[in-house]
Amino acid sequence: MSFKLVIPARFASSRLPGKPLLDIAGKPMLQRVYERALQCGAEEVIVATDEARIVEAVQAFGGDVVMTSAAHPSGTDRIAEVAAIKGWENDTIVVNLQGDEPLMPPSLVQQVAHDLANDPDASIATLCTPIELATEFENPNCVKVVFDRHQRALYFSRSAIPYDRDGEGENLGYRHLGMYAFRVGFLQAYTTTTPCPIEVLEKL
User: Fold this and answer.
1) How far is CA 164 from CA 131, 144, 156, 160, 170, in A?
2) Distance (Å, rounded) from C-alpha 40 to C-alpha 43?
3) What pLDDT score does 15 carry?
4) Are residues 10 and 98 in contact, defined by beta-carbon separation less than 8 angstroms?
5) What does the pLDDT average to over 161-187?
6) Into how many domains does the chain fold?
7) What percent of the chain has pLDDT over 70?
8) Residues 6+ apart with CB under 8 A from 90
9) Full domain range(s) for residue 55
10) Which positions make up the signal peptide (predicted)?
11) Which residue from 18, 23, 178, 190 has the least number of CB within 10 angstroms?
């Protein structure tokens, strides 16, 4: 199995400006993420950014970086631009690893790429994990996902879904892990679509 890995990194975060370059034990957070990404077995590991300071930081630690447009509304759009610049084929698998995940286990990156590679009918794959605490289930910052018996995602929401009417369920639900694997052809098509009202409402 072969795949590419792109780390979208923004400097102008509204909640924590400059977050990718925050120091973690003597290294920028983004460098920690990049070094973890190198352990995943990807053919290429690339940082995608619109910020010169991030470009300089990545080049300083010897990483591969691509400058992208500042107009992108999301990291997904930034990755699509990298795929176009690099000329990746439509069936190429690319994994999106967030630039603020320095502790993400390489095994999870490999899993999401493997899941997509082994399902020819799927265009995108992502991961989730069981929610064990009621406080997490009710927290809107914890994105929940509901899926069918074939592990096909049906809905993502900040709300507490599914609703357990009788209070007898053993599982509170599943938390979505914000990591995706895309087939490049689908990625290019997806990023040209207009966000639907629910996507805008939920900020997902």
Assistant:
1) 14, 14, 17, 9, 10
2) 9
3) 67
4) no
5) 90
6) 1
7) 98
8) 183, 184, 185, 188
9) 4-202
10) none
11) 23
